[in-house]
Amino acid sequence: AATAVLLAACSSGQVGGGSGGGVQNNKQLALIPGVQAEPFYISMQCGAEAEAKKLGYTLTTQAPQQFDAALQTEKVNALGSNPPAALLIAPTDDTAMLAPIQQVANRGTKIVQVDTSLKDSSIAVSSISSNNVEGGQLAAKTLAELVGNRQGSVLVLDTKAGTSTTAARVQGFTDELKNHPNLKSIGVQFTNNEPEQAASKVTAALASTPDLIGIFATNLNTGEGAATGLRNAGKTGQVNLVGFDASPSEVDGLRSGEYQALIAQDPAMIGQQGVDQAVAALEGKPVTKSLTASLHSLTKANMDANSQYFYKQSC
Ligand code: T6T
Asked: Model confidence at 48, in pLDDT bands (50, 70, 90)?
């Protein structure tokens, strides 16, 4: 039976809309995701494009080649002197991306944050993301259930410092782990959001920590790397792997037993709501300052009933 955990959508605060002052492309929206060709952002783009079309706007996407603030800044700067009416952006660094985004906002473009956010979100008319703290808590509760009464060590794989979402997942996971004294964290490892680095961190942890009983991989790249590390060591299924996201390879891995659970987001909904809020701001309608998208806990047992949450490779 399906046991998807739905974290209720909630909102807080309202800000007034505006006319898009100064920008000429008043039906033009842009999306700058964190990185190109990644199923999370592709699904977000699909949701955003469909909603833009429905509302009579066009949306173009410019994605950096890597999850990197310097490369993303180039994409923001390339919007140039004739920027879109609104920019949906997933900042790859909660601090470094402020200045380039500010420059676009200064030209009259409405800013909407999708998924990740800046430390100071006041530049954005609206911000839409999963409740990542709750996602991390859910991952820890799930791992604790998988492990039962057994004792052991737990490794956490993060992406890059300055990534708001994965930092929140780590926080939620670490807080919840305190309620499960049989599980001892051996710390958080950064991986530069590269699966190869995640794989080698897992290899090293297996060598140094014979009682490793669980891994929390905070996003799809860390998850894919962790699955590789466990497979290379012949430890698939022996060390519980709880991942985040639901990329095609993670979904295959859940089915084959490489992952014991995945916390899936709803990136298409994040994209759709991002467009809705951008358009509301442009049309002078009420805008919701902060929106939370749902999360869904997937296991091998419930995954087929929840296939709508699997991420897409193309629209
Ligand atoms: O987990 C997503 C996203 O929410 C996060 O901010 C960065 O990583 C992903 O894109 C997955 O790789």
From this structure: very high
Q: Is 117 in the pocket of ligand 1 (CB under 6 A)?
A: no
Pocket test for ligand 1, best of 89, 158, 190, 244 (most atoms within 8 A of CB): 244
Please tell me the distance from the alpha carbon of residue 114 to that of residue 98, in angstroms, as a whole number: 14
* Residue 185: both structure tokens together: 């964290």
Q: How far apart are CA 64 and CA 233, in angstroms?
A: 33
Q: Residue 12's pLDDT is what?
A: 35
Spatial separation of the C-alpha atoms in residues 128 and 140, rounded to whole Å: 24
Mark residue 37 as left, alpha or beta (left: phi above 0; alpha: psi -120 to 50; beta: remaining). left
Percent of the chain with pLDDT over 90: 91
Instruction: Give the CB-side neighbour count of residue 38, counting CA atoms within 13 A.
Output: 23
Task: Tell me which amino acid residue 95 is.
Answer: T
In this structure, the residue with its CA closest to atom 7 of ligand 1 is: 219
Contact 126, 103 (CB under 8 A): no
For tokens 């060709």, name the residue: 37
Q: What is the mean pLDDT of residues 6-11?
A: 34
Which residue reads 């920008």 in tokens?
Answer: 23
**Local structure of 242: helix, strand or coil:** strand
pLDDT-based confidence at residue 266 (cuts at 50, 70, 90): very high
The answer, yes or no, to whether residue 13 has pLDDT greater than 50, is no
Rounded CA separation 133/153 (Å): 21
**Looking at the predicted structure, is the pLDDT value of residue 6 above 50?**
no
Query: Is 273 close to ligand 1, i.e. is its CB under 6 Å away?
Result: no
Distance in Å, CA 119 to ligand 1 centroid: 17
Q: CB–CB of 76/100 below 8 Å?
A: yes
**Tokens standing for residue 79:** 């919007």
Give the separation between CA 32 and CA 117, rounded to whole angstroms.
13
User: Model's pTM, two decimal places?
Assistant: 0.93
Q: Which two tokens stand for residue 305?
A: 């009933």
